[in-house]
Amino acid sequence: MPCRQTAARQVEKLGFSRDDVRHIVLTHFDADRIGGLADFPDAQVHLTVNAHDPVLLEEASARV
Fold first, then answer.
1. What distance in Å separates the CA atoms of residue 47 and residue 45, rounded to the nearest whole number?
2. Per-residue DSSP letters for 20-52?
3. Looking at the whole model, is its pTM more than 0.85?
4. By the 8 A CB rule, do 32 and 63 touch?
5. Rounded to an integer, what distance in angstroms lies between the CA atom of residue 57 and that of residue 51?
6. Which long-range contacts does 34-40 make (Cβ < 8 Å, 24+ apart)?
7. 49 to each of 1, 12, 41, 64, how far by Cα in Å?
8. Quick check: 61 pLDDT over 50?
9. What is the pLDDT of residues 16-38, one digit of tens each?
10. Burial class (CB in 10 A: 0-12, 13-18, 19+), 60
11. What 8-state DSSP symbol labels residue 15?
12. How far is CA 2 from CA 5, 8, 9, 20, 55, in A?
């Protein structure tokens, strides 16, 4: 059963399309923060300096 609390579902619940999401700001790389990035393939993802850690980026890309 799909999760009803995903970012994509919350965006749609507000009356917007996933395509309306053009920018995503990440403050850190936890699985619950990055797991839904694939739901917004055209969005530009912005990172804070602290989140820009090569090890974390490698782990994140393996999860998406």
1. 7
2. G--EEEESS--HHHHTTGGG-TTSEEEE-TTT-
3. no
4. no
5. 8
6. 34/60, 34/63, 34/64, 35/63, 35/64, 36/6, 36/7, 36/8, 37/64, 38/64, 39/6, 39/7, 39/8, 40/7, 40/8
7. 36, 30, 22, 21
8. yes
9. 999 999 999 887 777 666 888 89
10. buried
11. T
12. 9, 11, 10, 22, 29
Specify the amino acid at residue 8: A
Take residue 48 and report the two structure tokens written for it. 């804070």
Rounded Cα distance, 20 and 55, in Å: 30
**Structure confidence at residue 55 (pLDDT):** 59
State which amino acid sits at residue 42: D
